Amino acid sequence: MFIQVFSSFAIVALVLIQRGKGADAGAGFGAGASGTVFGARGARTGLSRATAVFAAVFMLNSLALVYLGRQEAAAPRTILDEIETQVAPAVPAPAATPAPQAPAPAQQQ
Predict the structure, then answer these.
(1) Lowest-confidence range among 37-46, 54-63, 91-100?
(2) How close are the terminal C-alpha atoms of the chain, in Å?
């Protein structure tokens, strides 16, 4: 996950640093200093190569994360599942006692 986040931030930063195609049109109206930060063409190839490398790392890492995420995982267990496995087997209930009978009627003498 760290590689994914790092490569995405690197791609965003590299794209923002690069000079866009519309910057050439602005140079004709007095914005001629917009391309002098990295030179005329020297840094453009380096920045575009670095962007391509980070894009490749991002794509390969995305595929690897999807593959690892699709692996069969063990069923989630809860604390109650753990307690059920640790409890001793239940003690059998005592045998049922017969219901008390009504007293027999007294004999006549």
Answers:
(1) 37-46
(2) 99
